[in-house]
Amino acid sequence: MPLRLRGKKKAKSKETAGLVKGEPTGAGGGSPSASPAPARRLVFHAQLAHGSATGRVEGFSSIQELYAQIAGAFEISPSEILYCTLNTPRIDMERLLGGQLGLEDFIFAHVKGIKKEVNVCKSEDSLGVTITDNGVGYAFIKRIKDGGVIDSIKTICVGDHIESINGENIVGWRHYDVAKKLKELKKEELFTMNLIEPKKAFEIEPRSKAGKSSGEKIGSGRATLRLRSKGPATVEEMPSETKAKAIEKIDDVLELYMGIRDIDLATTMFEAGKDKVNPDEFAVALDETLGDFAFPDEFVFDVWGVIGDAKRRGL
């Protein structure tokens, strides 16, 4: 069934939720004698991934504020932080801090290490690399495809921050803009990337085991802190297994069509479609919330199929 012409985009609504679930968003409306419940102070523990003492971070409501808190705890500049992993100091892209933080998660901050300049010949149409970003301006390599162009260059590693391409500074770019620039390079073109790898420790095995223990604890938790690059954080219930799997599949579709992986974007798409009854309504909802992406109709149908399957299984 072809999609109908999509309507005009509507302005996005502003976030009004506070850090603590149920926190009032404005004065008035309550009983004069009623006093507000005390806000729950969320405290997290963090270390530098290459080795440090344990610090406490609290009072943040966005990814940018979290980085500032970590930087303050360890007396470094926020710009030194490349990204964070949860419950492990290793460069594990499956444990990457994204849009959600378990209330018992232990945070490991990976900071800038060695700089390197790499020349690459784009001998194939695809470089065989997946790009993501930390939400505050640093894009980095999330996956390297076995046998791909990038895989043949052993100095390029998963976790490396891409600072510039052919001399153009890309700090501040979103990952899909970086992926687009790499995709637009011509086949057989020789180009240069300036990379920064995360600082590494000589021995991290004991702390890796500690991270695993922390991960086991959070597996039974029922709430997460949802972070955003802009706007306040909110405490939310853990998503159902069906919903979580659907969001992962949407992330796969994003990579297939757009060459990017973005779990926050996949979550937004799922939320936009979960209460829609047909793909036309879903397409309009995508235009209202994510119109700047101009998703092709085939992509919309595939994502709608994932959401439909999840709805039939029960969310």
Describe the structure.
It contains seven helices and twelve strands. The longest helix is centred in the last third of the chain and has 18 residues. It is α+β, with helices and mostly antiparallel strands and 315 residues long. It has two domains: 156 residues, Pdz3 Domain (Roll); 74 residues. The N terminus is likely disordered. Strands 1, 2, 3, 5, 8, 9 and 10 form a seven-stranded mixed β-sheet that branches. α4 crosses α5 and α4 runs antiparallel to α7. The chain starts with 42 loop residues before the first strand and ends with a helix. β11 and β12 form a beta hairpin.
* Whole-number total of structural domains: 2
Assign the CATH superfamily of the largest domain. Answer: PDZ domain
CATH topology of the largest domain: Pdz3 Domain
The CATH class assignment of the largest domain is Mainly Beta
Order of helices and strands: EEHEEEEEEEHEHEEHHHH
Largest sheet: 7 strands, mixed
Parts with pLDDT < 50 across at least 5 consecutive residues: 1-38, 203-221
- Tell me, rounded to a whole number, the average pLDDT: 79
**CATH architecture call of the largest domain:** Roll
Helix-strand category? alpha+beta
- Give the total of beta strands: 12
Instruction: Assess the beta-strand content as a share of residues.
Output: 15-25%
- Molecular shape: flat
Rg is: 21 Å
Alpha carbon gap, first and last residue? 26 Å
Number of helices: 7
What is the helix content?
A: 25-40%
